[in-house]
Amino acid sequence: MSNLFRQLLKKVGSGNHTGENLTRAEAVTATKMMLLGEATPAQIGAFLIAHRIKRPTPEELAGMLDAYNELGPKLQPIAAERPVIVLGIPYDGRTRTAPISPIIALLLAAVGQPVVMHGGDRLPTKYGLPLVEIWQGLGIDWTTFPLAKTQEILEKTGIGLVYNPKHFPLNQSIWNYRDQLGKRPPLATMELIWCPYAGDVHIIPGFVHPPTEALFQETLALQNVTKYTLVKGLEGSCDLPRDRTAIIGLSSNTGVLERLHLAPRDYDFTTKNVPLETTAELLAQMQEVLAGKPTELMQTALWNGGFYLWRSGISPDMRSGIAKASELFTTGVVAAKLQELTQVVNSQEESTLKAT
């Protein structure tokens, strides 16, 4: 048993009257001790559930991020005209609505806006469809690349995915506890704003509960992150909903969060989300989008693509962003980006085989 961790556990687990918040430095220590297995399983499980009940502070989340930044992987800066977008999407995936983020990543990369994603396999508590399975279905298996190869792919194509089981195995050590507890600990919240990229970034995390927005804003300020977009998206992702007004927080030069409300009907979109059926059906729908076909998922792609093209500064407003997205899909530019990515990945795999 670690007596040091025991003291940190007592602070967060002593209840409303005598419990205390951790300092940023203490949060660093606690997170590192959990990731490195220096605390016992009983201590780790107790801490995770106690901290969930207490709720994290910005200082605690900032400390957790400090620990991840120290122990975790970092893709190195690439030559780019715009800050690299880092998408923060819940690691436990999607179960109800069709995700569109990989298609939007291809769209953005096709016009020179690099995108970095991160995550792993099917994980608790939802065990939903993760990013890596979608990419595998599109012909890109990020699970096979060492970080150096992912770096090369990012440099050549403007797209990269940090695959935690391979690139950050310490992170995976906590997932068994999450499964046994049946609840997401604050670490899952922190991971949405974790940035595995060392250069100039535009962080775009999704969230569900309104208090999370202010928590993210204060935590990112402590991390000196000034460019971010906070999206109350589908199932906590960065995907804009179509069944309701999209609620979005935009960073500003003044430090005051700017509020943006986008109603799909104002832009002539139907107000319904595309349900997630089987993975095979989703992949077939994505191929139709890449082929420029006017499907329901295409509506989701245009709605999200228009917003992200505008937010990236590629298009001057939402309507022109939507028109630009439509053009990129129907003329085959996005499909060509996937083909380019596939060719680069295949060349990387050939180089690896030759080296071995």
Automatic annotation (TrEMBL):
One annotated Gene Ontology cellular component of this protein: cytosol
* UniProt GO molecular function: anthranilate phosphoribosyltransferase activity
GO BP terms, alphabetized = L-tryptophan biosynthetic process
Which UniProt keywords are listed?
Amino-acid biosynthesis, Aromatic amino acid biosynthesis, Glycosyltransferase, Transferase
Domain Glycosyl transferase family, by residue range, is 97-332
Q: Where is the Glycosyl transferase family 3 N-terminal domain?
A: 7-70
Pfam families per the UniProt record, alphabetical: Glycos_trans_3N (PF02885), Glycos_transf_3 (PF00591)
Entry annotated with the keyword Zinc: no
Q: Any idea what this protein is called?
A: Glycosyl transferase family protein
**Protein's organism:** Tolypothrix tenuis PCC 7101
